[in-house]
Amino acid sequence: PKIFLGLEAHYDTLTIAPNLGSLAHFGMENLAFGEKTYACYATASSISLSGISGNVNSGLKVTLKLAYTDGQSVYLNGKLLDTSKYEVENGYVIVTTDFADLTLQVK
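-> structure tokens emitted (107 positions)
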């Protein structure tokens, strides 16, 4: 199946926009960004980053993009996000936050 995590790195921001096709989940370990290593796991409704090496207060950012349907709620690390903390564009929710261990969920 055609799948990808949709990783795109810019100077200080990593963008993750997974397309899992028919897979229920997908993950990769030992990825690198900004001289740090990390693991990334995705499902149709969630993205998790974990195991980030080094100082997580490095000024690096991550932009996460997941499929979104009107009426769904968006959670970052289990906390409901206010609608001012994310954007909705063309059927996707977009959240930008610090590059750190995290889980974004849409449900």
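The chain has a mean pLDDT of 92.
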